[in-house]
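Dear Dr. H.,

I hope your travels went smoothly. While you were away I took the liberty of generating a structure for the chain from your last submission, since the lab meeting agenda had it listed for discussion. I wanted you to have the full record in hand beforehand rather than looking at slides cold. The sequence, exactly as received, is reproduced here:
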Amino acid sequence: MAIAIINGRVLTITKGTIEGGTVLIEGGKIKAVGKDVPVPAGAEVIDAAGKWVTPGLIDAHSHIAIFGEPMVEATNDGNECTDPITPHVRAIDAINPADPAIKDTLSAGVTAVWTGPGSGNVIGGTGIVIKLRGRTIDEMVIPGTESMKMALGENPKRVYGSQKKFPMTRMGNAAALREALIKAQTYLEKFKRAEEDAAKESKEKSFKVEPKYPERDLKLEMLGKVLRRELRCRIHCHRADDILTAIRIGEEFGLDIAIEHTTEGWKVADILAAKKIPCTVGPNDLYRAKMELENFQLANAGILAKAGVKVAIQVDAFSTTRWLPVHAGMLVRFGMPEEEALKAVTINAAEIIGVGDRLGSLEPGKDADIAIFSGHPFCTFSRCEKAFIDGQEVFDAQKAGLPEPGKHCCRKGEK
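The corresponding predicted structure, in token form, is as follows:
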């Protein structure tokens, strides 16, 4: 059955704002978006008068359902801190669809996240994009969205340095990463050489000779995908020098990289923009818990966006991902243009995590992942009224028993 969301302030993100607009959903996809969209007979009609209709929000860097809640050792599956190089471990093998953080996060209109390993290892393994619904991981995951988590800076050097193991310095972090990538290059070269030798022998013998491939190595196999740019590298960096190290190694090996956290990105915004390196920024409620956060400032995301960097906003968390729209609002308060903040939790986030063709904007043909808010989605007075994933209602504030928000400045859609 078709669903028509009518009379709302529709924030398409990529095609402007439509006052009194309609979003038509059919077959789990957005069928049409506009001012005068015909509503088919028999369609379910949702009147969004006075409300704001947006794409489902996206957190491009979370640890939902992998660092589980309640947060005890039994549910903590986010860092395989037995080896600094673990590219073969996969978030998909640890995600718990029953994690209570999922339901909490839906209540904020967040319908999809990238979730993955933490930053305890130089190479931590692959994270993946999930939609926040489903009984099993297969119902949640968006196939083909794996990306490789890496980390520079204090976290890996603290984890292994405290054990008097390599790496215990920033030099060691970079060396460990290079060493692993060089081993993977050698591994790929062995496969190429085996195929070349087999082709040569086949020509000489006039029949097909099968290549004699080396024994499989899961670590090097995954890093081979990184070297072939089949997997984006999501590199945890706070300090500006770590950001530049990530860029240096990325260029050395021809990697597809994004910078995660980017706390001192404001110092090198021009370099990030010139090199077209996307960044996720956050969490944005930090205090200076460690030295590499010394120069944290809330103006960072705005500085990066104004410099031309593609920015996504991350909460880097679990159930507190529900505060993603609040974080976005804070960043607008500290200089980020509102339009850029909206992109940072929708289309920019979608593109950075590899789902921009499906999510992040209200356009015909995209997945019907949609949120309806009582007011501006970034206003702390607003609440998410409803959320849909693939055209199915996954959250309703009234059904959840949440109190009606009081009248406020953006309740009726006023700027």
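Two observations you may find useful: The chain has a mean pLDDT of 96. Residues 57-359 form a domain with the TIM Barrel fold (CATH 3.20.20.140).

With kind regards,
E. W.
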